[in-house]
Amino acid sequence: MCGIVGYTGNKAAVPVLVNGLKRLEYRGYDSAGLAIDTPTGILVEKAKGKVSELTKLLAEHQEDSPIHKSQAGIAHTRWATHGPPTTENAHPHASSRIALVHNGIIENYKSLKGKLEAQGYNFLSQTDTEVLALLVDSHYDGDLFQALSSALKEVEGTFGVACMAKDEPGVLIVARRGSPIVLGVGENETIVASDASAIIKHTRQAIYLDDNDIAKIKGGDIDIRSLDAGVVSREASEIDWSPDAAEKGGYEHYMLKEIFEQPDAIKNTIRGRMDAERGTSMLGGLGLTPREIVDIQRLVIVGCGTSLNAGMVGEFATEDFAGLAAEVEQAAEFRYRNPIINSKDLVLAISQSGETADTLAAVREATEKGALVAGLVNVVGSTIARETGRGVYLHAGPEISVASTKAFTCQVATLLMVALKFARSRRMSVEQGRRFVQEIESLPGLVKQVLAKDKQIAEVAARYVQYERMFFIGRGYLYPVAMEGALKLKEISYIHAEAYHAAELKHGPIALLEDTMPVVALALEGPGKEKTIGNIKECSARNARVLGIITEGDEEAKSEVDDYIEIPACRLHAAVIPATVALQLFSYHVARLRGCPIDQPRNLAKSVTVE
Ligand code: M6R
User: Fold this and answer.
1) Atom 12, ligand 1: which residue's CA is nearest?
2) pLDDT tens-digit profile of 422-435?
3) In the predicted model, what is the mean pLDDT of residues 570-578?
4) Which residue of 40, 168, 333, 406 has the smallest Cβ count within 10 Å?
5) Domain containing 222: what range?
6) What atom in ligand 1 is closest to the CA of residue 331?
């Protein structure tokens, strides 16, 4: 959830580190710090708040001072787990000899701390990371690689870690277990990061460490070993997106940019995967033979947050079109409730980042239970993509905004392709398949039509800015849309938004309705619409203002609501995507008018790598 950057090479380290931190700030942003190798020792600077607070401190050092000349250092941007966001708790944590930054959680930190205190170590922070730093120091006798290896053997938990020692100038030691570390391979230089977006400005050649890898790096020399065995070989791969993709490109926020990227992102998701003639999809990455596809008896979809909401659409479409039993599970519960899983199940793990701890744990549990396990992931080379070894990449490009937008619509597009694949191998005719292919191919155009209404949606949003609570309701395919709409609104505007199945309203939530509680009702043409219109009447009767997401030209629906956003007519499994885009824009404009920090909402991090 935090971000790590490291540099060793022949350039000034500070600008590389600060630039990398800014790129990673979306991962966590309650404090930031760096440690720099200087001729007189390791210099540490840390600041509470955003990276800009750290840069103010760095500006206090003269331009020709050792900190600015140094060619090696490590840096970190934090999302608090142990201890509040203070300067003391910010990383790096250091002794007089070593400095260290860490992502993950050291689960046995209490017992290790007791042991270190007995050896005379004093602690300045409340973090588990300081325990790791001092544990490394306790093993240090001039060889940092050995010291970190020995320390990590005592550690239970997860880590992505980078450290340096005063007596080993220019050397960085990095290791990972459960928290990603990627090495950007440059000419006589290496950039270490927890996420490729911090290295893309310098090089596209990336080496992704595997769990239990530990590496010694100096300039361009990289020596990777395994904590369990000896030397290991890790090939560099090319990052397939450009530095521009990770910039705002003239938009006020990454979120808005990513909302507007959706037509192209969906095109990239479906490119080369549609077979119009045979009316089916081609998903070679799933690595399933036609026989295996027919033999699968159940699709189990796991994910968290937005990915979970997308998964619900996949569940509905798979049952609806393929007649294949499907269920969606919260990844966080999957391994704890001991699910019944067998070799005829395909478990599909959905994750934008490919690093979400709960989803990864579900992948491991399903693998243990002998299921076929596939990933539906955006970040190439991420842990879930590698551990599943089969799946479908979204190709949505980097998603920087904490609020997920294009990942959701590309996940849904992919799940529709998965449903089509199963449907054609079961009960769907070629003609029906061709229609389905056309519907998937029409998605970028449908999204464009909604984006063209941005100004109108902003005007509607202005009428909802003052409310502090809101309901979202929907049925069938539109229920996950209500869930995703409420999630978007609450995370970026801090309005208390809750989604309910429209039929559930009468079973309790309706008690909360009054004129201070507006309702966003998904009432598109299709099965269930008339019943939702009935629910809208019930809301209006309780003086709740109603915003309808309705089908273009539906005069009946217009007459029932106070405000509306129109969506082009299409069947509901396809309408999920344009309807969600409308709610993304609605949430964005409400949050913007409320003056919220849209790309970095409080308390959140882009990638949730702790349980
Ligand atoms: O990277 P993942 O898709 O696994 O992330 C899952 C959730 O943490 C994520 O979708 C989260 O809910 C978003 N902030 C929602 O906008």
Assistant:
1) 305
2) 999 999 999 999 99
3) 98
4) 40
5) 3-239
6) 4
**Between residues 79 and 299, the one the model is more confident about:** 299
Do 269 and 326 have their domain in common? yes
Q: Final residue of a domain: which of 212, 239, 266?
A: 239
Ligand 1 geometric centre to CA of 307 (Å): 6
Are 473 and 501 in contact by the 8 Å Cβ rule? The answer is yes
User: 396 φ, ψ to 5°?
Assistant: -85, -10
**Which of 180, 208, 239 is the last residue before a domain boundary?**
239
Both 357 and 496 in one domain: the answer is: no
pTM of the model: 0.82
| Per-residue pLDDT reduced to its tens digit, 33-55 | 999 999 999 999 999 988 999 99
Which residues share a beta bridge with 563? 547
Largest CA distance in the chain: 78
Three-state DSSP class for 248?
A: coil
Q: What is the mean pLDDT of residues 163-175?
A: 97
Give the total number of structural domains in the chain.
3
Q: Are residues 219 and 281 in the same domain?
A: no
- Asked if residue 92 has a cis previous peptide bond (ω within 30° of 0), the answer is yes
Atom of ligand 1 nearest to the CA of 606: 14
For residue 607, give the CATH number of its domain: 3.40.50.10490
| Pocket, ligand 1, Cβ cutoff 6 A | 304-307, 351-353, 356, 359, 402-404, 487, 491, 607-608
